């Protein structure tokens, strides 16, 4: 018989990751759903198994040793692999069942999910969607760390070789003007004309800012750096106040973001000016069929929403 060495348990590894991430025993215990004494005992048992201290404990704080940080990084990979094993087993029975943690960016979520969620629940009653809204970079970081299963985002965006993304829809941009400024209303406007306008954009950190400029070929346009929006709704209010013009994606316009205003829109002339809506997931995930099915459902939902808008 081969003698087996004592090995860490997944529970012990999850305790270590929580403590290293939160730097606090009490908060880590709450995050793991156990008492502080249980968590502390688990960490001590882990240190005994590994034969080395992982944490420096004081009355005021807890600090991971260099080995502790290394072990926590390895533990995250092991825990993520274990989750993928469970996901693979579940998806073999029903690909559209169980929990799915979906990240979504702020320039998509409010304009898609209110209509899509009820239909998704009806189509996939055994799928439990948990949503998190945040900007693209932190969402993808959480996706890589295993905190999210998939992310609904706008492309183009450098997602990296470790992630896989599929296109769902094309989302054209339109120029939005204060009342009486879009002359003539509805007629396509040349990007060159927009370059001379006081262009209002989202603040740094929102991928829509750069995507709109690139898609509309306006990288050198004059931008209002004094007034920057924190959301598309803020941009609408700024244009309504006469501070300038802006660029909005069609899904926001279709969802009624201009309702109650007298703002006017003009499509952009020339080359297609749009962003792409996509769904991204970890390339090694065992739930690829789940994500492709979800992407197809969202694609159909976006197409229905576009057809339902009167032109």
From TrEMBL:
Name used for this protein in its record: LysR family transcriptional regulator, hydrogen peroxide-inducible genes activator
Keywords: Activator, DNA-binding, Transcription, Transcription regulation
Keyword Transcription: yes
Record flagged with keyword DNA repair: no
Entry similarity comment: Belongs to the LysR transcriptional regulatory family.
Domain HTH lysR-type: 8-65
Matches recorded under InterPro entries: LysR_HTH_N (IPR000847), LysR_subst-bd (IPR005119), WH-like_DNA-bd_sf (IPR036388), WH_DNA-bd_sf (IPR036390)
GO CC term (a single one): protein-DNA complex
Short name of one Pfam family: HTH_1
Record organism: Enhydrobacter aerosaccus
GO molecular function: DNA binding; DNA-binding transcription factor activity
């Amino acid at each position: 018989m081969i003698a087996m060495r004592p090995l860490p348990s997944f529970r012990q590894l999850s305790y270590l990751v929580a403590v290293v991430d939160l730097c606090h025993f009490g908060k880590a215990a709450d995050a793991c759903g156990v008492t502080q004494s249980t968590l502390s005992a688990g960490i001590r048992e882990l240190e005994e198994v590994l034969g080395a201290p992982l944490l420096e404990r004081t009355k005021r704080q807890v600090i991971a040793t260099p080995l502790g940080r290394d072990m926590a990084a390895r533990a995250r990979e092991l825990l993520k692999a274990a989750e993928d094993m469970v996901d693979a087993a579940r998806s073999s029975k029903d690909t559209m069942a169980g929990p799915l943690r979906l990240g979504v960016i702020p320039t998509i979520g409010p304009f898609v999910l209110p209509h899509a969620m009820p239909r998704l629940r009806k189509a996939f009653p055994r799928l439990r969607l948990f949503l998190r809204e945040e900007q693209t970079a932190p969402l993808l970081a959480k996706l890589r760390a295993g905190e999210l299963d998939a992310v609904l985002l706008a492309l183009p965006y450098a997602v990296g070789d470790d992630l896989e993304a599929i296109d769902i829809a094309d989302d054209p941009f339109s120029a939005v003007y204060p009342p009486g400024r879009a002359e003539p209303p509805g007629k396509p406007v040349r990007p060159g004309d927009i370059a001379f306008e006081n262009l209002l954009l989202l603040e740094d950190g929102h991928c829509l800012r750069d995507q709109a400029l690139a898609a509309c070929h306006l990288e050198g346009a004059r931008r209002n750096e004094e007034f920057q929006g924190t959301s598309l709704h803020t941009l609408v209010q700024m244009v309504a106040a006469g501070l300038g013009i802006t660029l909005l994606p069609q899904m926001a316009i279709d969802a009624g973001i201009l309702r109650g205003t007298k703002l006017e829109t003009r499509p952009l002339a020339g080359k297609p000016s749009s962003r792409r809506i996509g769904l991204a997931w970890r390339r090694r995930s065992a739930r690829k069929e789940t994500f492709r099915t979800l992407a197809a459902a969202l694609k159909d939902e976006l197409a229905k929403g576009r057809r339902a808008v009167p032109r």
